[in-house]
Every structure is written in C-alpha cells, then in structure tokens.
Amino acid sequence: MNKHTYRCITAIAAICLCQSMMAQNTNGGYFTDGYLYRHESNPAIGNDQSYFSLPGVGNLNVATRGNLAVDKILYNVDGKTTTFLNPGVSASEFLSGLKDKNKVGADIRLDVISVGFKGLNGYNTIGVNVRSSAGVKVPGSLLRLAKEGPENKSYDISDLEVNAQAYTELALGHSHQINQQLRIGATLKFLFGGANLQAKFNKAQLTLGQDDWEAVTNAEVHASVKGWTYETETKERYVYDGNGYDLQDRSYVNDIDVDGTGLNGFGMGIDLGAEYKINNDWKVSASLLDIGFIHWNNDMLATTNGDKYFHTDQYIFNADGDADNKFSREMDRLRDGLATLYELDDMGDQGGRTTGLGATLNLAGEYTLPTYRNLTFGALSTTRFGSFAWTDFRLSANVAPTNIFSASTSFGIGTFGASFGWLLNFHPKGFNIYLGMDHTMGKVTKQYIPLSSNAHVNFGINIPL
Question: Quick check: helix, strand or coil at residue 284?
C-alpha cells in the first residue's frame, strides 16, 4: 500500500482510538457494593436502588491495552526523544523482548444517558451508549526488517492488520430473581452503526537473499463509512504479464475522500447473565456479553486484486543503450514492479457486509467473610473473543464499611501482563460518584500516554433515587 493509503488507515484508526467512545467494563467493580453499573458486566446483577445518570458523565470507560510498549518504540538518545530507527539505538536493544505478534488496542465507552429502576418483578435498565474500539496488529518480523534493514533473511508480515469501528447502542435490560438461589438477566441491544474499517495483509512474504530478492503480497481494505470514496491516480507503468513487460496506463488508489457522516448500518446484540447463591458465604456467576452483529450499508473495497509477485531475476540490465533492457528502462521496470506490491485497485462498493461485535465471557466466584460480612473476596476470569482476543484473570478484595462508601482493590494477570486495580465509590443519599482503574498507569509520556501501552480509567456521576 502506498503512503497515501497508509495515511488514510492511520488517520481512521487514530480517530477511533482517541475520539470515539466505548470500552470494556470495569472488572474491578464487578463485586463492589454500590457500583451502579455492574449490570454491564453481568445483566443478572440488580441494584438495591433506582438511579439515573448525569448525561455524558454517568459512566465513562476508557482502556488501552497492548504488548508493544511505547518505550519499545520511542527512546532517549543524547537527551532527545527518537524512534527505534535511530542509529543510536542498537538492534539488540530494540529486538530484545520483541514479540512475534504485537498488539495495541483501545476501547472507549460513553453512557450518554442511563436509568435503572425496580419493576416488572425485577430490576430494569435503559441506556444509550456511544461505543468504539480499535486495534492494530504488527508482526515482529516487520519491526525487525525496519530496524535491521535488508539482510539475507525471510520475513513474513502477513499478520499486519488494522481494525476500527464505532456505533451507538440502545440497551434494554432486565434482571429477575427465579428463586432464593438463582437470578438471571438479559440485555437486548439495538445497534446503530457509524463506521467500520478493516485493513489487512492477507499475504506479505519477503525473501531477501544475497543474489536475488523475491516477494509476494495480497492486501485489502474494507471501509464501511458513509460518503467514503477512494481517489485514484493514473500513470504509465510497466506491467509484467508473466512473459514480459508491457507499458500501459495503471490506475491505483492514492487517497480517500469522505463526503458527509451519519448512520451507516444497523444491528442487534444481547447480553446474558446468571448468578447462583450456593450458601450465605459463596456465590458464583457467569455472563456472555455482546453476542451480535452489525450489518453495514456499504463495503468500499480496495485491494491488490489477488497475489502480486516480485522477483529480481526478472530484471537483466544491459550496458547497450539501444537494447530493450537498457539500464534506464530496466530501472523503470524494476520501480514499477516494486510498486505493484503495495498499490491497491479501487474495486468500488461491494454492497453491504456484516461484522460481529467481539463477544466477552465472564466467569466469577465471590466469597463473603463470615466474621465480617462487609468484606468479600472475588475471582473473575474475562475472555474477549475476536481478531484482537485477550484474557484477564483478576483477584479482588471488596469492602463496604459504611452505607455511603465502598471500595475494591484487585490484581490481574493475562494476555497483556500483570496489573493492579482499584475503585472508590462514594454513594451518600441522593448522590453517587466513583473513580477506578483496572490497570493503574505507571510512567507516562509528556502527552500522558502510558509507556506500557496499558491503562484503564472508569469514572461516573449518578443520582440514586
């Protein structure tokens, strides 16, 4: 893909990472008494009181996660911040600890308005939420190639991928007590799609030998964004047909244009959950969240249009200035051959397409201390499915010493390493405010970006009734 296409993909991903709103639910609040949004982690959980949120600040949830730390990309050389490509950063220093598969992602969730109330023989919730998620997968071989430069090695960078989506949901939830031991719940979601983007190298393999180089690529970009079109450029290019080269006009994508924004899809989803009280001290629960889909109205496809091949033995230079393969002409052919590896064809609108939401499974157990009933201990296993799957196993201690205050501390370990979390919840009569982190930020850049690529902040203000 040419630099213009990369710029477009990066821009869309950055918008979704930094601007759109959605995220995972706060795992540290799963067992916290008085935390009003536990139903978003398990729809079977009901609150003791009704509430409504302050618009826009009822439940703001922002998370970043990854196994490619910022301090593996940015370095301090001679007092200046630079990238890993700086000659002052040795290859051994950069490559130490580099993963074969590197992931960086972000989820953000904003509850625009939310209410919870008792009725219909249970507890009910209504919420309007703006959500988005974005992720980038970078194969370690691509980073090694960038740092080491062409060496006598083979590189497979087929796992390079960017995904991003944004949508709004209307969520209607109900929790119902079946008997003294079992409580179940479900949330039905109506989804209104805003944008979806997927860019991926299905195949990208390079063999850089001492005497010859060869490469094969197969890439595609799917964009489901209202008003999205690809801009193309046409140039005369030498095109290899398997036998020789022919000079012809070649059109390829060199930019994008987005004319207008708005609703661009519709879908549905459901959350399912259950709680089971074994006895007065033990309780177990499970939930499966975001089972569903969004059907997007369009699919603007740009692709290499199949596998593209390049092999240096196709080019034989001749010192004779009158020969068909004279040096200047062969250099043009070589340049055009390399260009076909990454240039994309505009395939137009392929019609609608359907994408999944990325389901999340929670399995939990909670123990209440018999000698002090206001103290509980919880274990929660969370698994996110999909292209950017991850897991988190978390142990927590949760305390509610008074009617107006509750708190939790937790320790988690999973796909993206270990983390320490906490949540403070103040809920006096007529007012509820909380602040917490599942992954407490360590060192940050001047722009407050966590060096570890992992952080999770949850904040909200609500009015209990």
Answer: strand
Q: Strand 60-66 relative to strand 51-53: parallel, antiparallel, unpaired?
A: unpaired
Q: Using CA atoms, how far apart are residues 37 and 25, in angstroms rounded to an integer?
A: 9
Cβ 25 vs Cβ 362: under 8 Å: no
CA distances (Å), 382 to each of 255, 340, 360, in order?
40, 43, 7
Report d(CA 111, CA 171) in Å as an integer.
10
Tell which residue, 238, 202, 207, has the closest CA to residue 339: 238
Region label for 2, one of left (φ > 0), alpha (ψ between -120 and 50) or beta (otherwise): beta
Q: Which residue has the tokens 């729809």?
A: 43
Q: Alpha-carbon distance 368 to 377, whole Å?
A: 6
CA atoms of 403 and 428, how far apart (whole Å): 7
Radius of gyration of the chain (CA): 26
Give the per-residue pLDDT at 437.
94
**Residue 448 CB burial class (10 angstroms; 0-12, 13-18, ≥19):** exposed
For the CA atoms of 30, 33, 36, 37, what is the dihedral angle to 10 degrees?
Answer: 0
Distance CA 292, CA 175 (A): 20
Most confident of 2-11, 155-164, 210-219, 436-445: 155-164
What's the whole-model pTM score? 0.84
Measured distance CA(173)–CA(48) in Å, rounded? 15
- Tell me the β-bridge partners of 174: 124, 186
CA 337 to chain centre: 34
Contact 269, 290 (CB under 8 A): yes
| Single-letter amino acid code for the residue at 321 | G
Task: List, for residues 159-210, the tens digit of each pLDDT value.
Answer: 889 999 999 999 999 999 999 999 999 999 999 999 999 999 998 888 877 6
Q: For residue 354, what is the enclosing H or E element?
A: strand 353-356
Q: Going by C-beta distance under 8 Å and a sequence separation of 6 or more, which residues neighbour residue 90?
A: none
> How far apart, in whole angstroms, are the C-alpha atoms of residue 305 and residue 261?
28
Q: For 1-37, b where at least 16 C-beta lie within 10 A, e where not — what string? A: beebbeebbeebbebbbeebbbbbbbbbbbbbbbbbb
3-state secondary structure of 29: helix
> What's the average model confidence in pLDDT over 267-291?
97
DSSP state of 4: H
